[in-house]
């Protein structure tokens, strides 16, 4: 889809930002400042000019949003930890292409842990 | 990308991909199918009788909250005629259980069910905070697990209720099966697959109506029904969910989602190979009588209750001890061979090869113990003194030293 982006190193400040909301529940909010909902502006494209997808969002969240050092509770081997569900606009990400899903303006991405007790 | 339509109603947008069969369902079809399957589990196993008083072991977590919600829905929809009560255990852990108990209190209002809270302090004279103060964090899950199991039964008794349902799900059952398989613990393997546990002497039976429900679907059900639940980790056993068996289950699910139910079914098949008279006798509170529901304790004995059947080091240690205790009991695996149909012989061979630890084979024999009652508290026990009283004895001895 988005191959029109210039691959030359443009100023990062020029990168278009898209607003999304990211929710954490099922215990994951503990890793993200005990805050369930995060309204974020994320770069529409990554360093290589590729449109931002769930995989790059996960990386972005780890670097910018997660304050807790226990990254392995969210990500294992560069993928979302098994047992954490991802919902894209309320739909199971398995229906939307999982990590390859390209994030759209206004999307709501929910990460729910199934791993925590009561 | 055009929205994928629900394979069931073919009109609404699909939001759920079912792990067991990859069906893509919309919100309302998913909720209905989930409830229908629990209803099927309940009716096909004859779990309840009309007018039965049933206590729901409620922690405020996802599993027990979904269980309460679904049972309320089904009770009304299918006229089970059940008298449902929420039963919560207060372990006495500040900053943990007091928060989740608030959730249970809200659930009681939301589902219009009476709530009974039983505290470790009133039952045992010790809160978990005090236990940890005395013995430290190491091994405290063993105390909590032993106390909890009795606490649910005692709470039910106080209410005059003979049936406690718990929120154990398919992932929990699969994990327990794997662990019992790795230990070669046939008695527990058999028991852990059974939907109803509790023997004729125990007065209170236990069952798990969500036994075939995927944890993933339980969480999605709670999400799409907007249920009010609480998720936390016990402050005394943080990150206990990183147990290897649990991780294995989740990794298997990722590769092949049907694996979880496959393990549950396989566990049930293997359990059938354990002779009936032995499967009804339990390592810790077995019964001499036959024709009882599958005897015995919950699989999370000794484990941290918040983990709902998930493992802990304390549990393993307790099991090891029991396996040693069982060594004296007679070798029963030979009987298995004799009663086995010829076609199952190969399967049985496999069963015998399972124990991975070295050591005498008869230490893995299915044990038989006679159920009695605890001399101290009168609670059922296979020993003269029940586990809870043994632990309490140790605690009470230490108390003066600690308090000085």
Automatic annotation (TrEMBL), chain A:
- List localization entries: Cytoplasm
**Which Pfam family is one of this chain's hits?**
Urm1
**What processing steps or modifications follow its translation?**
C-terminal thiocarboxylation occurs in 2 steps, it is first acyl-adenylated (-COAMP) via the hesA/moeB/thiF part of UBA4, then thiocarboxylated (-COSH) via the rhodanese domain of UBA4.
What InterPro entries does the record point to? Beta-grasp_dom_sf, Mopterin_synth/thiamin_S_b, Urm1
The reply to whether Lyase figures as a keyword in the UniProt entry is no
UniProt cross-link Glycyl lysine isopeptide (Gly-Lys) (interchain with K-? in acceptor proteins), position: 118
Which pathway features in its UniProt record? tRNA modification; 5-methoxycarbonylmethyl-2-thiouridine-tRNA biosynthesis
| SUPFAM superfamilies for the chain | MoaD/ThiS
Task: Please list which residues make up the signal peptide.
Answer: none
Q: Does the keyword Cytoplasm apply?
A: yes
CDD domains for the chain: Ubl_Urm1
Which top-rank group of organisms is this from? Eukaryota
Q: Which keywords has UniProt assigned to this entry?
A: Cytoplasm, Isopeptide bond, tRNA processing, Ubl conjugation pathway
**Which residues get modified to 1-thioglycine?**
118
Annotated GO biological process? protein urmylation; tRNA thio-modification; tRNA wobble uridine modification
Just give the chief location class: cytoplasm
One GO term describing the cellular component? cytosol
Its function, per the record, reads: Acts as a sulfur carrier required for 2-thiolation of mcm(5)S(2)U at tRNA wobble positions of cytosolic tRNA(Lys), tRNA(Glu) and tRNA(Gln). Serves as sulfur donor in tRNA 2-thiolation reaction by being thiocarboxylated (-COSH) at its C-terminus by the MOCS3 homolog UBA4. The sulfur is then transferred to tRNA to form 2-thiolation of mcm(5)S(2)U. Prior mcm(5) tRNA modification by the elongator complex is required for 2-thiolation. Also acts as a ubiquitin-like protein (UBL) that is covalently conjugated via an isopeptide bond to lysine residues of target proteins such as AHP1.
Q: HAMAP family given for it?
A: Urm1
Q: Which family does it belong to?
A: Belongs to the URM1 family.
Name of the protein: Ubiquitin-related modifier 1
Name the source organism: Diplogelasinospora grovesii
UniProtKB/TrEMBL annotation, chain B:
State where ATP binds: 57-59, 63, 89, 167, 172
Region Disordered, as annotated, extends over 295-317
Instruction: Read off the Pfam families from this record.
Output: ATP_bind_3, zn-ribbon_14
Start and end of every Cytoplasmic tRNA 2-thiolation protein 1 C-terminal domain?
Answer: 372-403
Q: Which HAMAP family match?
A: CTU1
Q: Which GO MF term does the entry hold, naming one?
A: nucleotidyltransferase activity
Q: What is this protein called?
A: Cytoplasmic tRNA 2-thiolation protein 1
Which EC number(s) does the record attach to this protein? 2.7.7.-
Q: Which InterPro entries match?
A: CTU1-like_ATP-bd, CTU1_C, Ncs6/Tuc1/Ctu1, Rossmann-like_a/b/a_fold, TilS/TtcA_N, tRNA_thiolation_TtcA_Ctu1
Q: What does the record give as its pathway?
A: tRNA modification; 5-methoxycarbonylmethyl-2-thiouridine-tRNA biosynthesis
**SUPFAM superfamilies this protein is in?**
Adenine nucleotide alpha hydrolases-like
Q: Where in the cell is it found?
A: Cytoplasm
Boundaries of each tRNA(Ile)-lysidine/2-thiocytidine synthase N-terminal domain copy? Answer: 53-233
Top enzyme class, one word, equals transferase
Question: Is the keyword RNA-binding assigned to this protein?
Answer: yes
GO annotation, biological process: protein urmylation; tRNA wobble position uridine thiolation
Q: Tell me the name of the encoding gene.
A: NCS6
Family statement drawn from the similarity comment of this UniProt entry: Belongs to the TtcA family. CTU1/NCS6/ATPBD3 subfamily.
Q: What role does this protein play?
A: Plays a central role in 2-thiolation of mcm(5)S(2)U at tRNA wobble positions of tRNA(Lys), tRNA(Glu) and tRNA(Gln). Directly binds tRNAs and probably acts by catalyzing adenylation of tRNAs, an intermediate required for 2-thiolation. It is unclear whether it acts as a sulfurtransferase that transfers sulfur from thiocarboxylated URM1 onto the uridine of tRNAs at wobble position. Prior mcm(5) tRNA modification by the elongator complex is required for 2-thiolation. May also be involved in protein urmylation.
Keywords assigned: ATP-binding, Cytoplasm, Nucleotide-binding, RNA-binding, Transferase, tRNA processing, tRNA-binding
> GO cellular-component terms in the record?
cytosolic tRNA wobble base thiouridylase complex; mitochondrion
């Amino acid at each position: 889809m988005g191959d029109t982006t210039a691959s030359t190193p443009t100023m990062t400040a020029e990168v278009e930002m898209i607003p999304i909301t990211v929710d954490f529940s099922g215990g994951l909010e503990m890793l993200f400042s005990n805050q369930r909902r995060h309204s974020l502006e994320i770069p529409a494209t990554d360093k290589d000019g590729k449109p931002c997808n769930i995989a790059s969002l996960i990386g972005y969240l780890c670097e910018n949003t997660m304050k807790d050092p226990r990254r392995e509770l969210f990500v294992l081997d560069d993928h979302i930890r098994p047992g954490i569900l991802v919902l894209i606009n309320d739909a199971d990400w398995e229906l939307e292409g999982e990590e390859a899903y390209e994030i759209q303006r206004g999307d709501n991405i929910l990460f729910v842990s199934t791993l925590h007790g009561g | 990308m055009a929205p994928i339509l629900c394979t069931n109603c073919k009109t609404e947008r699909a939001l759920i991909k079912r792990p067991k069969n990859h069906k893509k369902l919309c919100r309302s079809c998913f909720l209905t199918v989930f409830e229908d399957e629990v209803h099927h589990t309940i009716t096909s196993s004859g779990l309840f009788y009309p007018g039965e008083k049933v206590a729901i072991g409620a922690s405020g977590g996802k599993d027990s909250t979904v269980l309460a919600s679904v049972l309320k829905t089904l009770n009304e929809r299918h006229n089970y005629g059940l008298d449902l009560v929420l039963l919560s255990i207060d372990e006495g852990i500040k900053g943990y259980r007091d928060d989740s108990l608030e959730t249970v209190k809200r659930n009681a209002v939301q589902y219009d069910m009476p709530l009974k809270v039983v505290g470790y302090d009133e039952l045992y004279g010790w809160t978990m905070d005090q236990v940890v103060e005395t013995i430290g964090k190491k091994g405290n899950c063993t105390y909590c697990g032993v106390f909890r199991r009795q606490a649910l039964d005692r709470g039910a008794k106080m209410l005059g209720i003979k049936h406690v349902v718990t929120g154990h799900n398919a992932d929990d059952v699969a994990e327990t099966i794997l662990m019992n398989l790795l230990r070669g613990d046939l008695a527990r393997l058999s028991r852990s697959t059974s939907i109803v546990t509790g023997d004729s002497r125990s007065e209170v039976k236990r069952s798990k109506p969500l036994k075939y429900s995927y944890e993933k679907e339980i969480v999605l059900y709670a999400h799409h029904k907007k249920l009010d639940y609480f998720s936390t980790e016990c402050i005394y056993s943080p990150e206990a969910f990183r147990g290897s068996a649990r991780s294995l289950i989740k990794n298997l699910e990722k590769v092949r989602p049907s694996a979880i139910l496959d393990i549950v079914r396989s566990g049930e098949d293997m359990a059938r190979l354990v002779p009936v008279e032995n499967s009804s006798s339990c390592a810790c509170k077995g019964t001499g009588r036959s024709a009882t529901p599958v005897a015995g304790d919950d699989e999370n004995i000794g484990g941290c209750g918040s983990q709902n059947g998930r493992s802990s080091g304390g549990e393993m240690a307790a099991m090891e001890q029991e396996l040693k205790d069982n060594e004296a009991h007679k070798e029963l695996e030979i009987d298995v061979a004799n009663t086995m149909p010829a076609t199952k012989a190969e399967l049985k061979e496999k069963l015998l090869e399972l124990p991975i630890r070295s050591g005498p084979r008869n230490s893995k024999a299915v044990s038989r113990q006679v159920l009695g009652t605890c001399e101290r508290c009168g609670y059922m026990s296979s020993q003269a003194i029940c586990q809870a009283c043994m632990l309490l004895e140790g605690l009470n001895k230490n108390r003066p030293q600690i308090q000085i």
